[in-house]
């Protein structure tokens, strides 16, 4: 069996924030957690890890450029293939990410053409729905998404759903970075792990 795990960084981070998590360190722990679910439901598989984000321009972002560069290099050292979009400035000077959704969509279709059996997509972006439709002609597409995320079309189009909270329940707390907010991460993560650790819902 061949499978791939695709993470849409901006959408993924937003969903993590909503459940009280600032980030995952190292990110490979997230992929390994999904890999664990995959082995449980389908047995051994050849799994590719893919991460989609963007690198800001060096002349505009300064130190942030180098921070992002080191982050991507760390992902690659852990065996995660990084797919970079671009950043451009809008009229107010804010950086906008471009090309990432297109890259994910193209890869979904290409992987399906290359006989990947399972494609896990951690996102929720409805812009990916057409690509998921095409990929489903040859592969099974599993949406990785939080229970708090509406993403109705994204969920409906996928062949199955793996809830983010279940994946987080398989990751050790030492790898989860707390998000400072009114609801402490410790309580929320303990709740997630108590209810979901080693008992993720089946993908089908």
TrEMBL record:
* Entry GO MF terms: RNA nuclease activity
Q: Which InterPro entries match?
A: NYN
> Region (Disordered) spans which residues?
182-204
Gene3D superfamilies linked to this entry:
5'-nuclease (3.40.50.1010)
One Pfam family here: NYN
Q: Which residues form the NYN domain?
A: 65-164
Spell out the protein name for this chain: NYN domain-containing protein
Organism of this sequence = Paenibacillus abyssi
Species lineage, top-down?
Bacteria, Bacillati, Bacillota, Bacilli, Bacillales
